[in-house]
Amino acid sequence: MVDALVTLIVVLACLGALGVLAAARVVKQYERGVVFRLGRLRSDIRGPGFTMITPMVDRLQKVNMQIVTMPVPAQEGITRDNVTVRVDAVVYFKVVDPAEALIAVEDYRFAVSQMAQTSLRSIIGKSDLDDLLSNREKLNQGLELMIDSPAVGWGVHIDRVEIKDVSLPETMKRSMARQAEADRERRARVINADAELQASKKLAEAASQMADTPSALQLRLLQTVMAVAAEKNSTLVLPIPVELLRFLERGAQEIPAAVRAEGEAEGGAPAAGPAAAPEREAAPAQPAQPARQAMPTLTEREPEPHAVDR
Question: Model-level pTM greater than 0.70?
Answer without folding.
Answer: no
